[in-house]
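Extended Data, panel c. Modelled sequence:
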Amino acid sequence: YEVRVQASNGRALSAGRMIARRTLEDVPSAPVNVLVVDADNTSLLLMWDPPTFPNGIILSYRVEYFGVETTSTANSSFYDVRDMTVYNVTSTIINELVPFSTYNITVAAATSIGEGPPSSSGSQYDLVANMTRRRNSFPSDQPNFE
C-alpha cells in the first residue's frame, strides 16, 4: 500500500510524504476447481487452481486422500489418511489406489505463515465409474494411464 500524509492549516496543504508499506503474509484461502482429469483403476491425475486469496507467496500444496467405505473394500489401510506435498505445481498423480474404490480428496495451499483451509471436503472420486473412459485427449506431456 502507498499512503500520503499531508498537513492542512485551512488555507494550504503541505507537500506531504509518500509512505509505502506491505502487509504481512497470512495463510491462503482454499484452492479452487479441484478436479480429477484422468484415471485408471489404480491411479488418477488431479488438477486445481490456486487460491482466490493467496495472501502471500504459495510455497506448496498438500493433497490429502482416503478411501470411502464401499462393499468392495477389504484392506484396512484403505481408510488411512494419506497425504503428499507438491511444490510449484497445481497438479499431481496419485498412484497405488485400491481398484474399484471411492476416495475423498482435498487440497490445501501453504505460505510461509502456514497452511490454509482445504478445498471442499465433499470431493469424492469413484474409480469404478471412471476407469473405463478413453484417455487419449491429453497433450503428449500429460500422463496417458493406458
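The mean pLDDT is 80. This feature is highlighted in the accompanying rendering.
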